[in-house]
């Protein structure tokens, strides 16, 4: 139960209260009057009954922790189902009678549309849907896409599987934008870097669980179904994770609506509307952050995709060991990301941590390119650097972009990332075919140098404008005159 106790500057209202004290159930009309004069009042929310419990009180950390659990699982189904083609590659090719190029379309049909669609999704979240409805809509699209994809397998229609992956892609990246926007809304100024690290960890967990589970699931379905039906039913069961994430979106929406009502967050809104032209007014620091996002991730995702053969040829590792070395980056990031995010939360200085992460990653690629040191060493360190960068980089957007434009900003950033990764991945494959893996490693090092220069550019741009990106936590608190923040730091 929520009760509002208000103090008003008007003496006439105070006299009226003193003369005839109203009961809590009585409508005195004063509440409406106060609502029209928000600039002249202070509102205090008193939670009674079950609403006073820590887990039901939005002012309490326990309430935010419950929301964080749902926030982490918001994209779990998307991350899990994204890699189902990779986990069942041989089975898809044989059961559906398709070649490698047709199989690869299951990934490209997800990636290429998101060069545009995740920016559109972010804009729709800011301008039309809002975070709550946006998360539910995009989670529903992900779920629909997965089941269409699975149905294509059941009825032996590969084109339907392709359509399903396209639908899945429409929702997948936009859902990630909603998740990022939710995170900033709930945790900005608190544990934001830690939470971004935790979300990264959950993404890696989703992909890892998929590779561990899908083949045994496929084999189990094989006890009562064969061929394309075995494949389709396996994918349909995997879609249960999308339903689970959709449930998390609904519950998170309820928690967020309650939080907004009790904390009266709507009264703080400026009513500003987002326009597509707002993108042109984004500061230089945002575009440099986007450059880092592309140039750094190029040396992670496409590299890991091509690394297995590289390790087998240069370091003479067997097939199983090469896979283990390639996956160590994701395994370490699943553990280290929230820990390193907590370090960034405690210290601030995001630019310094990004610079350090890029520099260490550059050193790791140099070790792989020019030495014969056991690749486990370089890849393990690369996993730590990747975790540190992701924990420090993504929250920086919330420090340079107004809250009402964050969905658009994160959507634009992910669109740039998708375009860059799609183009550079193809170029990386061409380099391997023509020049070999040593030149490919040097290619990745060039991109990391671009990320390093961009980081310096962010520091120069931010410092000359009196920005806060490289301030310590206590310096940011003093600048924003946040007493509570100073006490926590």
TrEMBL record:
Cell location: Lysosome membrane
UniProt key word Transport: yes
Sequence segments annotated as region (Disordered): 1-34
Coiled coil (residue ranges): none
One GO cellular component term noted in the UniProt record for this chain: lysosomal membrane
Domain of life: Eukaryota
Pfam families: MFS_1
Record keyword Transmembrane helix present: yes
Transmembrane segments: 62-82, 103-125, 131-155, 195-218, 230-255, 284-304, 324-344, 351-370, 376-397, 444-461
Gene Ontology MF terms: transmembrane transporter activity
Gene3D superfamilies hit by this protein: MFS general substrate transporter like domains (1.20.1250.20)
Residue span, Major facilitator superfamily (MFS) profile domain: 64-465
Reactions listed under catalytic activity: L-alpha-aminoacyl-L-histidine(out) = L-alpha-aminoacyl-L-histidine(in); L-histidyl-L-alpha-amino acid(out) = L-histidyl-L-alpha-amino acid(in); L-lysyl-L-alpha-amino acid(out) = L-lysyl-L-alpha-amino acid(in); L-arginyl-L-alpha-amino acid(out) = L-arginyl-L-alpha-amino acid(in)
Membrane topology: Multi-pass membrane protein
Keywords: Lysosome, Membrane, Transmembrane, Transmembrane helix, Transport
Comp. bias intervals (Low complexity): 1-12
Family: Belongs to the major facilitator superfamily.
Listed PANTHER family: MAJOR FACILITATOR SUPERFAMILY DOMAIN-CONTAINING PROTEIN 1 (PTHR23512:SF3)
Subunit structure: Homodimer. Interacts with lysosomal protein GLMP (via lumenal domain); the interaction starts while both proteins are still in the endoplasmic reticulum and is required for stabilization of MFSD1 in lysosomes but has no direct effect on its targeting to lysosomes or transporter activity.
Protein's job: Lysosomal dipeptide uniporter that selectively exports lysine, arginine or histidine-containing dipeptides with a net positive charge from the lysosome lumen into the cytosol. Could play a role in a specific type of protein O-glycosylation indirectly regulating macrophages migration and tissue invasion. Also essential for liver homeostasis.
Entry protein name: Lysosomal dipeptide transporter MFSD1
Organism name: Cherax quadricarinatus
């Amino acid at each position: 139960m929520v009760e509002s106790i208000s103090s008003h500057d008007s003496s006439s209202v105070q006299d009226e209260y003193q003369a005839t004290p109203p009961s809590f159930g009585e409508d005195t009309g004063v509440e409406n009057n106060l609502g029209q004069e928000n600039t002249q009042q202070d509102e205090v929310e008193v939670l009674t009954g079950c609403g006073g419990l820590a887990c039901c009180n939005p002012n309490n950390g326990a309430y935010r922790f419950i929301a964080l659990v749902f926030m982490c699982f918001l994209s779990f189904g998307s991350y899990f189902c994204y890699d189902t083609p990779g986990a069942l590659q041989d089975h898809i090719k044989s059961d559906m009678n398709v070649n490698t190029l047709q199989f690869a379309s299951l990934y490209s049909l997800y990636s290429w549309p998101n060069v545009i669609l995740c920016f559109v999704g972010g804009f729709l979240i800011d301008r039309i849907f809002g975070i709550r409805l946006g998360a539910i809509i995009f989670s529903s699209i992900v779920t629909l896409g997965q089941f269409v994809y699975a149905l294509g397998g059941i009825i032996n229609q590969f084109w339907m599987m392709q359509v399903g992956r396209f639908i899945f892609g429409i929702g997948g990246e936009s859902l990630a934008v909603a998740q990022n926007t939710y995170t900033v809304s709930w945790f900005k100024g608190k544990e934001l870097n830690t939470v971004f690290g935790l979300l990264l960890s959950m993404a890696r967990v989703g992909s890892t669980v998929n590779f561990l589970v899908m083949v045994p699931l496929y084999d189990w379905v094989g006890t009562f179904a064969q061929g394309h039906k075995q494949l389709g039913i396996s994918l349909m069961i995997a879609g249960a994770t999308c339903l689970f994430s959709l449930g998390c979106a609904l519950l998170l929406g309820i928690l967020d609506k309650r939080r907004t009502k009790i904390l009266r967050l709507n009264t703080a809104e400026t009513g500003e509307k987002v326009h597509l032209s707002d993108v042109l007014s984004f500061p230089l620091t945002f575009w440099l952050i986007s450059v880092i996002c592309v140039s750094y991730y190029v040396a992670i995702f496409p590299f890991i995709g091509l690394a297995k053969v590289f390790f087998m040829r240069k370091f003479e590792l067997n097939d199983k060991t090469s896979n283990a070395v390639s996956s160590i980056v994701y395994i370490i990031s699943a553990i280290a990301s929230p820990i390193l995010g907590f370090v960034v939360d405690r210290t601030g200085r995001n630019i310094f941590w990004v610079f350090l992460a890029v520099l260490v990653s550059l050193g790791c690629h140099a070790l792989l390119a020019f030495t014969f040191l056991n690749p486990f060493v370089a890849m393990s360190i690369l996993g730590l650097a990747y975790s540190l960068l992701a924990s420090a980089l993504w929250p920086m957007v919330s420090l340079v972009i107004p809250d009402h434009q964050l969905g658009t900003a994160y959507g634009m950033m992910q669109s740039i990332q998708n375009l860059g990764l799609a183009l550079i991945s193809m170029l990386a494959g061409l380099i391997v075919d023509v020049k070999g893996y040593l030149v490919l490693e040097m290619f990745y090092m060039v991109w990391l140098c671009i990320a390093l220069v961009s980081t310096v550019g962010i520091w120069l741009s931010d410092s000359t404008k009196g920005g806060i990106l490289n301030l310590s936590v206590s310096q940011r608190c003093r600048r924003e005159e946040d007493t509570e923040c100073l006490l926590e730091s």
